Amino acid sequence: MKKISLILFSFLIAQMSFSQSVDFKFNPNGEFKILQLTDTHVTVGKNNQQHVMDLLATLVQEENPDLVVFTGDVVTDSDNPKPCYEIFAEFFKRHKLHWAVTLGNHDSENKMPRNNVASILDGLDFCINRSTDNLKGTNFLCEVKSSTNSDSKAVLYFLDSQDYSTIKPRVDGYGWFSTGQVVWYKEQSQKFIDENKDTIPALAFFHIPLPEYTDAWCNGKAFGTRKEVECCSKINSGMFGAMVEQGDVMGTFVGHDHVNDYVASYYNMALAYGRASGAKNSYGDLKQGGRVIVLKEGKRTFDTWIREKNGEIKQVCNFPDSFQ
């Protein structure tokens, strides 16, 4: 009996692991489309999620993405965010569409610890989140395979930019990537380089902009809007430098600053914001929308634009061509 129970338990664990693994592929045209939403700021019990669901439904219908990514401040001011996340999960299950979440500074401000919020996401339908041992929050990656074989052609990193400084009052303000996170990214990146004898084009998604965003806007060509100074951490822990050294990440995509939606180029890397997707749930006067990113198989390039809820397309550009 014990042997049968052990076999059944092992089978269930295998099934759970299998159900959480996703085999993304470029389509026959050699493209992979991502829809980024950010700063939705929905709240359990406040009846403020429907207009976000309406936006999501509109953009999914208009763009038909392969993956939807929420870059932080998704469910806020809630002791238990699970009911709101389950509403999102039901939508994605109905559309058979995968989604991912990186946590923002407001996602764990209440009673539920950050790792507990991450654990909720790990088990939701069609959500590709999975926790990484010894790293706080949402840190994971996925590969996008070739349209014709099983070769990895792109990598997507999902990183937790943390919430607030843990060493107040010496350092105030927002959090930053830990040394462990920077090391983890470099280790994963190097594995792909070693296995493929070259870098694989990659993107990274997180919530709080890197300090280099300010330099990128001030010193380079940019597309989009900047209505507030970047609210970065006061400590630069080296994630941008690590990405430049590795040479794989083409662009980073963040939220946090609700009235910024620009893309700038800095040291041959795109530093981009999404478009605030929460409308009346948050501050700012930019129209509710999302950012679309289209990867090209085997190429270090992507197209991107803002799609507003009213259907309008804004700020179409290509990286790197538009920044030459």
UniProtKB/TrEMBL annotation:
The Calcineurin-like phosphoesterase domain, residue ranges: 32-259
GO MF term set: hydrolase activity, acting on ester bonds
Pfam families (UniProt xref): Metallophos
InterPro entries: Calcineurin-like_PHP, Metallo-depent_PP-like
Alphabetical list of SUPFAM superfamilies matching this protein: Metallo-dependent phosphatases (SSF56300)
Record keywords, A-Z: Hydrolase, Signal
GO CC terms, sorted: cytoplasm
Signal peptide: 1-21
Stated name of the protein: Phosphohydrolase
Species, as recorded: Labilibaculum euxinus
